[in-house]
Amino acid sequence: MSTSMSSSPDHFIAPVHTPDIAPVPVTFLMCSPKLYDVNYVINPWMAGHVHDSSRTVAMAQWKRLYEAVTQLADVVLVEPQPGSPDMVFTANAGLEHNGVVVLSSFFHAERQGEERHFRRWFQQAGYTVLSLPRETPFEGEGDALFAVDGSRLWAGYGPRTSKSSHHYLSEAWKIEVASLHLIDERFYHLDTCFAPLEGGSVLYYPPAFDQASIMQIEDYYAANKRIVVTEADALRFACNVINIDRTVILNEVSRELSDQLKSNGFRVIEVQLSEFLKAGGAAKCLVMRLSGATH
Ligand SMILES: NC(=O)NCCC[C@H](N)C(=O)O
């Protein structure tokens, strides 16, 4: 079922139909890099890398990530589509919770073509799909992350997602949304600089946020629960982690950070993802968390 959100938040109608989806522990949506390329520049990472990535190397790196994820969770695949080279970054397809997907409304025209492919996939899989107006950019899980206890949604805004989209997210799941302002173009999505982790800790790079946002993060997470990432590790996409129970899967990071994660009780799996960094993404961008799927 597809439901369209009206252009005015006042007229937003919450979904009335949630399909029966058999719950599975955790499922991730991934997309093969068969058609991956850096074709345009919509973030600072892509500058200087147009057509500079190797699809062969990207495929080998993606397969290692796929294998690591499938050891711990189910993976479902969406078919890559010609003309959508960034589709491999399925985190940006939308945000799903309880069988409801709020579909992304991409800021850049270069990625807007992905929307119909992801919409079709979610509809065929039985999700209720909600759409945002074109003038309300929202980039899915790239900019919206649930607190691990589900008590709130952390949502980024600034370079891509608009703050006005957060109201829709709050309405979709009747959940408190904490809005965080991203102020560094290199960290243009929330999932490039912030990761709530199992056990109630958080991995983050403070300079990516304005002061009010840092205060919100620090009000929520006690000092001993905050794992602050250095700029060098942030630039290795250290915050871009796939967290499944006590395991974190991420790009190669410093020994210090890896040891810190281990001393916080995490098993650390590092997968080299250099080809995807050229487009501005890493481990977490390459998966979308789903609470249920029909196939
Ligand atoms: N950070 C993410 O969640 N995804 C990476 C998206 C990379 C893509 N080239 C983009 O700029 O939208």
Automatic annotation (TrEMBL):
Catalytic activity: L-arginine + H2O = L-citrulline + NH4(+)
Domain of life: Bacteria
Enzyme class: hydrolase
A molecular-function term among this protein's GO annotations: arginine deiminase activity
Gene3D superfamilies on file: L-arginine/glycine Amidinotransferase, Chain A (3.75.10.10)
Signal peptide: none
GO BP term, example: L-arginine deiminase pathway
EC number assigned by the record: 3.5.3.6
Pathways involved: Amino-acid degradation; L-arginine degradation via ADI pathway; carbamoyl phosphate from L-arginine: step 1/2
Name this polypeptide is given: arginine deiminase
